[in-house]
Amino acid sequence: MNKKKVYPQWFLILPLVLYIVFFLFPSLLGVFYSFTDWGRATPKNGLHFVGLKNYIDIFTSNKNYSAGILNTLKFTVVSNIVKIIPALFLAIILFEGIRGMGAYRTVFYLPSIIPFVIIGIIFTSVLNFKNGMLNGALEAIGLGALKQKWLSDLNVVWKSIYMVDAWRGIGYVMTIFMTGLSTIDKSYYEAAKVDGANFWQRLWHVTLPMMRGAIMINLVFGVTYGLKVFDIVYVLTNGGPGHATEVMTTYSFQLYGAGSYGLATAFNAILLLITMVAGILIVRGMSRKGAA
Amino acid sequence: MKNPNRKPVTLQAVLKQLLCIFLSVIVLAPLYLVLINSFKTKSEAARMNLNFPTQWVFTNYPDVFKKAKLLTGLGNSLLYSFASTTAGVLLCAMAAYVLSRKRTKLNNFIYYFFICGLFFPVNYITLVRVFQWMGLTNTSLGIILVFTSAMIPFCVFTIYSFVETIPKELDEAAVIDGATPTRMFFTVILPLLKPTLITCFVLQFMGVWNDFLTPLYLSSKSKLHPMTMSVYQFFGKEGSNWNYVFADIVLTVIPVIIVYSIGQRYIIGGVTAGAVKG
Question: From CA A189, how far away is CA A283, in angstroms rounded?
């Protein structure tokens, strides 16, 4: 059978063209522009190469741009830890059998279908210092001392962002874990129980190794989401108070708005580099799993 | 006093239930807050509490509908989501089929070439430039093409692994029967891919519906704004009128919840079934 005839190669043309023109090419073009002074004034003054100036600016300027990079990395690590670990235990609790399991699963998943923009607006209200529901609830149960300026206190604002992010994301991560749990053969647990393994031993020696696929998926989605995070920060704090919660994408958007396109694309180029490194590490981890 | 050693199952079950109820309350309270306050007067909604309205104001909804240009937003969101997702899923099914069946060196390279897009961020700033070159600035077509392109990595990845579960003999039998390969793909293979196509469709549809960054960069005209943009702009303009903001949120979220309830069984379990099992 002639494979050429059965599987038309032209099926690939349109997806390739779209992918290259609207996805890959702009990314590479961004790397090119990051070495120039591209900006609002370019049509008048022309485009000039400035070498590494944009990158030097990012790391040395008094605008504290490099803090945006650190914040992105910090968000990626912390937001994933606070989602993945509780989601894992929640998935196990639901999966081991509980009355109303289906209803709980639907409820926990619900926030992840709501647009981030809207979640940002909702929590602007919930976290409002004076009238917000959270402070109100704390007061009502006699914990008024824990009231916070959730979105304007430098020491609290990141915690608020993690909290909102977890509120939205835990159910999604949990659902993927539950899919993973459903693929594990029950006999492993019976064998482990016969051997007298306790909960933690079963978790460590049976559940986690058997769920490598689900863990990997959650890491891929979680890490790429974390590195590209924009909406939730933009709507909740818009990088504030001051610049305390700026991430790479919010800086890039601001610089774009200010007309410094070259500097903005330099941010995107750094983000591209970081996501590529993360991607390579994760894909390597995946293929090692395949070999094992 | 129950002895936890003698009746571990029951106590555990009770604690689990309490935990799950507690978490459900945390999840549902903000949503209830939005709903109940959307029926209040401006001054009452500004207090942002969970009490029932002293006076039910149903006119918030028709008011918001007019003020927030919801119809434009709804129309654009529907257009972007349907057009880009239909095109994206169909094109990716074609590509994933050929890539999975005909594993030449070139095609393997193309597969990984697509997959690395899972990690890439879209560069919207240069995309604005590309749009200028192609005459796509402030057009719905441009926005749709960007959404379609951005979903290619995920859809190819998901459909590719599903194609492997369809026996190859089918392709060859159909072609021997005299069908052209293209017709054979659309009449024989495509229907067999239905479960994974629906999963991709629902997930990407909701992804496009919820997206904020693409229209933020690529549509400077409000007639091109999808619902996420119009709700955000409305919030910026009417931020002190929480009754309106909450009503606007309810109206914006309803369509997503409808799509979710129709497609729920395809999302849960479908998200990653192939990859998780792998």
Answer: 30
Contact B56, B39 (CB under 8 A): yes
Contact yes or no for A29 and B156 at CB 8 A: no
**Token pair for residue B219?**
């549509």
The residue of A3, A5, A7, A216 whose CB has the most chain B CBs within 10 angstroms, and thus the best one to mutate to test that interface, is A7
CB A108 within 8 A of CB A174: yes
As a whole number of angstroms, the distance between CA B276 and CA B57 comes to 48
Half-sphere exposure of B25 (CA within 13 A, CB side): 9
Q: Which of B233, B251, B254, B246 is nearest to B41 (CA)?
A: B246
CA A43 remoteness from chain centre: 36
pTM of the model: 0.88
Q: Could you give the domains of chain B?
A: 8-58 (no CATH), 62-277 (1.10.3720.10)
Calculate the alpha carbon distances from A246 to A59, A70, A117, A252, B46 in Å: 15, 10, 17, 10, 29
CB contact under 8 A, B48 and A131: yes
Nearest to A110 among B27, B92, B123 (CB): B27
Q: Tally the residues of chain A.
A: 292
| pLDDT at A242 (0 to 100) | 87
Q: pLDDT tens digits, residue range B98-136?
A: 999 999 999 999 998 998 888 888 899 999 999 999 999
Q: Which of A69, A114, A228, A260 to mutate to test the interface with B (most CBs of B within 10 A)?
A: A114
Q: What is the pLDDT of residues A151-171, one digit of tens each?
A: 988 889 999 999 999 999 999
Is the distance from CB of B249 to CB of B181 less than 8 angstroms? no
The reported pLDDT for the residue numbered B7 is 45
User: Which domains are assigned to chain A?
Assistant: 54-291 (1.10.3720.10)
Q: Which of B29, B52, B228 is nearest to A126 (CA)?
A: B29
Distance CA B83, CA B253 (A): 20
Contacts with B, A 161-200, CB within 8 Å: 167, 171, 175-176, 179-180, 182-183
What residue has token string 């999963």?
B199
pLDDT for the residue A213: 81
Farthest-apart Cα atoms in chain B, separation: 78
ipTM over 0.90: no
Q: Is the pLDDT of residue A1 over 80?
A: no
